[in-house]
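Quick one, T. Sequence first:
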Amino acid sequence: MAKRKLKKFAEVASFNNCFFLSFEDSKAGGLPLKGKWNEIYFKNNNPIILELGCGKGEYTIGLAERFPDKNFIGVDIKGNRIWTGAKTAIEKKMNNVAFIRTRIDFIDSCFDDNEINEIWITFPDPQPQKTRIRNRLTNMMFINRYKKILIHDGIINLKTDNEPFYDYTREVVEENKLDLLDNTNDLYADRKNRDEALTSIKTYYEKKFSDLGFKICYLKFRV
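Structure tokens:
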């Protein structure tokens, strides 16, 4: 298992659609592509969509296949997870996909102000302990970082199987007077007028938790 992980790490480092940002680099100017993703990497002016905590990149790949007129970037700290999505994108010759291996804490060292159009947060660790609230990816510390890199009126989407985390995020949105656009604590029982990508693309964790009978929650808001 360890050898296989090391092999994947080495391959990810060699993939031309994968980038790495260390703590040191985050303090020294960030990624060289910061502010230049469309100009240098994608070579177009299409909107850029992020998936944070992308895992194996199922959502990044699924959205990129459905929307070839948009660019998609998956972000995760685990290189052996990113390997799956990055390799799929290479094999399918998908030029609108990239991945970054880094901590979400460093997200504003990866992108310039107003460079991102939309963010997806898919099945993050809910960090249920009260002592770990600051690590929840939808607390205002993180949202303020997202707001910096998002265009004006940029959108954030959350999918989670953890209803307390969904409730927490909805409270954050309401308390900070953000614009709540859509929410449901049972997405598959309540599919009204929503894009089919919401239910047709499933991450590894979504499928796992759905099969166990967990309800899937969805929240969409504008910052």
